[in-house]
Amino acid sequence: MTVDPYQKLRERMVAHQIEARGVKDQRVLGAMRKIPRHFFLPEEYIEEAYSDEPVPIGLEQTISQPYIVAVMTELLALSPKHRVLEVGTGSGYQTAILAELAGEVYSLEIVAELGKRAADLLTSLGYKNVWIKIADGYNGWAEMAPFDAIIVTACAEELPPPLLGQLKNGGRLVAPLGTEREQYLYLFIRTEEGVVKKRGVPVRFVPLTRQ
């Protein structure tokens, strides 16, 4: 049997960085114990894969801090029947977490090199429920809408209106919003009466870019 030398680091990451800060969803914690985060980083940064901070992945992008990945995922309240839209594939790590928890994951990445790299890696890891498209995420993925959940992994000052329009009634959308100096995580829940908006923890994300 092959021993994964990084398994203990993942266990420690989940226990000390995520559970200790209040994340309780056992499916989220299980996915983060399972997925080899170091696979999603450039070779020169592999030793930082399980550190409590964002890590560069090249092309002026980062892989988010493990705790923030867990918080955002928990807020989505995913089930195996859900269809999820991810805006910003990046390294593909968050995509893999979503694919462990949801039925279908549709992910948009504006940087072609990153999108192709993530698609190849996720395929090699055996994920068959992920579809990646190289596109501007601002307008979402209308032909695959509506979605049970939407996650945005880059920061805009205001939420792009098309994204809320692609969210099912009862659906949940998680996104960082704000300026370069001050950003917060927000949860949007679509109800029959309208959209409920809740502000969460302060965060730091790269800006949402457009073509």
**CATH topology description:** Rossmann fold
Write out the strand line-up for the largest beta sheet, numbering strands in chain order.
5-4-3-6-7-8-9
- Please state the structural category: alpha/beta
CATH architecture, by name, is 3-Layer(aba) Sandwich
Number of domains: 1
Strand fraction equals 25-35%
Which short descriptors sum up this protein?
two-stranded antiparallel ribbon; Rossmann fold; alpha/beta; 9 strands; 211 residues
Quick synopsis:
The protein is an alpha/beta fold.
Write up what this structure looks like.
The protein is of the alpha/beta class. The chain has one domain: Vaccinia Virus protein VP39 (Rossmann fold, 3-Layer(aba) Sandwich). Helix content is 28%, strand content 28%. It contains six helices and nine strands; from the N terminus they run ααββαβαβαββαβββ. The strands form two sheets. Strands 5-4-3-6-7-8-9 form a seven-stranded mixed sheet. A hairpin with a 2-residue loop joins β1 and β2. α1 runs antiparallel to α2.
